[in-house]
Structure prediction request, 322 residues.
Amino acid sequence: MTLVKRSTVFLFVTLGLLALLATAFYLLGAEGVVNSYILNLRLKKLLTFGIVAVIASFATFSFQAVTGNRFLTPSVLGLESFYVLMQSLFLAIFWRWSQGVAPRSVTEFFIVMGLQCGFFLLLQPVIKRLLGKGLGLILLICMTLGTFFRSLSTFLQVLMDPNEYDKLQSRLFASLQNANQEVLYLVLALTLVLCLVLYRKGKVLDVFYLGKDNARLLGIQVEKEQQVILWLVVILVAASTALVGPMSFLGFILVNLTYQLVKDYRHQTLFLVGSLLGYVILLVAQTVVERVFNFNVSIATMIELGGGIFFFYLLYKERRTL
Prediction:
């Protein structure tokens, strides 16, 4: 049995206590007693926080292990840019045909997920051909496509009338407040299954940090494992994006904070600590949005601002170590 460091156990217990206290405060608040309707809504929000945190942790840690870079997140694959393009196309072309009605539904969830996975499927011939040469060129292609999708989205947004554009903005910013509740339990089941697979592949991900050649010497089928893990990451990111919208910086923040706090290379430990840390971050941020800013600031804005500052801090720290 693999032993866990005492410092990691202490950190996990501390985060667990913080999560329990923050959960109790969010559920009950200053009033102490709430009716069943409000309690049910808040419980669903808490479940959404947990799902998004787990997906961000597992997907980002796995992606960084495969790419060998701690500054990259799955957003470089272009899935979130493709999501923005899909929403822009829908509201620019089909929204007026639907008489302004565009409710979140199970059908929309499957369409969004299917299109994002379909986009990655179209890249498979290129990915299979280039995996033996390294992931650098694949990531460059995906980043180029992401830039192309963002340019098309901007062009469509310029052509929209103000009502369409306003409707689009409400969908392009991640919102835990307006998550697609109809698919919440479906996403929960999907997340548990895929994250269990990634958790069991934790030791394979540990070996990836030794380099591709060393991984082959240790009996790892590198290209096959890379392709499987990338597919798991893509499906998780697609599910999270379809549920709450794009959250590029969340994974970056929580995994790099976890690297700072946990002096352990084992991904099975990192997955758990990162998920709990992500849940605490989302819960505290949403509590501040609701009870301090009175919904005048979105949680996506807070995460993007904090993530940008943290990114430049890490770059500065990395530069000083060179």
